[in-house]
Specification:
Layout: E1 3-4, H1 5-15, E2 28-31, E3 37-38, E4 41-44, H2 49-57, E5 62-65, H3 84-92, E6 96-99, H4 102-105, H5 112-119, E7 122-127, E8 132-133, E9 137-144, H6 148-157, E10 171-180, E11 195-207, H7 212-222, E12 230-234, E13 238-239, E14 246-255, H8 256-267, E15 283-287
Parallel strand pairs: 4-5, 5-6
Antiparallel strand pairs: 1-3, 2-6, 7-14, 8-13, 9-11, 9-12, 10-11, 14-15
Length: about 290
């Protein structure tokens, strides 16, 4: 048995939430289903023909790319040119595509800027500014006691209930629910036309706005009722710990050319050429 794409997405988004991405960006699962189970993953910078050939040869069920294949809505898929050619190949091969772009860049754990700063290393190294985060949504729903575990688990798997380093966070409070089904209803509990009173739990969970479609779908699929009652409450915005820009001071000043060489050496073999603009002999003491 393989690993569900949903589990992989949850692991990435735990350290690089989709809400960290810039408004113009398009991140997350772009092609495929979160329910698919896969055994092999290919990780790439871009979705190119060479990337897809490697994925096909490896029988990979998922490609994780840094740069999005789809930035904006498309009006047609032409298999003779980009990006239609790549979309067609992914679907034909049964390969899903997940993108982590500016949400990765802003992650306090996965950011390349942060990694370079650590490797140089830099003194007094820290973020220039905190990035404002979009507001989250508080989901409130009402569930019969025997169904509480399955609904809570389904919501958590879809991305609800994440607070910092804690998962499956929620609050449940016992209460009494009532309803009367019409002649055309099909109640999971009780009979049509009869006022029913059922012991239910009010379940509250925090949800990222970027995953609300997935979470609401999981709620409907896991809830036993024909009609699911739920409320969505916008939560106040907060300043999270995501950053794009970091700054620090070199332990010893150096030239621009020497700094570029050090960065290339620190990144290791196989990286693209490190380019710089300016006087190669210019002294550099601090970086951003």
């Amino acid at each position: 048995m393989g690993t569900r794409i949903q589990e992989i997405a949850n692991a990435i988004e735990a350290v690089a939430p989709l809400d960290y991405a810039e408004g113009w960006d398009n991140v997350g699962l772009q092609i495929g289903s979160v329910k698919s189970e896969i055994d092999t993953v290919v990780v790439a910078l871009d979705v190119r023909q060479s990337t897809l050939e490697i994925a096909k040869g490896a029988k990979a069920g998922l490609v994780i790319a840094h740069h999005p294949l789809l930035f904006s809505p498309i009006t047609r898929i032409d298999s003779d040119c980009f990006p239609g050619r790549e979309i067609h190949a992914l679907i034909a091969n049964g390969t899903a595509l997940y993108v982590g772009h500016t949400n990765i860049d802003a992650s306090p754990i996965l950011s390349m800027n942060l990694e370079i700063g650590k490797r140089l290393p830099l003194e007094d190294f820290g973020p220039v500014a905190m990035k404002p985060q979009p507001a989250s949504i508080k989901l409130v729903t009402f569930i019969p006691e025997e169904s509480l575990p399955q609904v809570r688990s389904a919501l958590a798997e879809a991305g609800a209930g994440v607070i910092g380093e804690y998962r499956e966070c929620g609050f449940a409070h016992r209460g009494l629910g009532s309803f009367r089904g019409t002649d055309r209803s099909n109640p999971a509990i009780g009979e049509r036309g009869v006022l029913e009173e059922v012991e239910e739990f009010r379940l509250e969970m925090v949800c990222p706005k970027s995953k609300m479609d997935r979470i609401i779908r999981a709620l409907w699929e896991s809830h036993p009722y024909e009609e699911v009652a739920y409320d969505l409450y916008p939560m106040a915005a907060y300043h999270g710990n995501s950053h794009f820009i970091w700054k620090g001071n070199l332990t010893e000043p150096t030239t621009l050319e020497e700094l570029a060489s050090r960065i290339k050496e620190d990144l290791g073999e196989g990286v693209a050429p490190v380019r710089f603009a300016g006087d190669p002999e210019q002294e550099v003491a601090s970086l951003a």
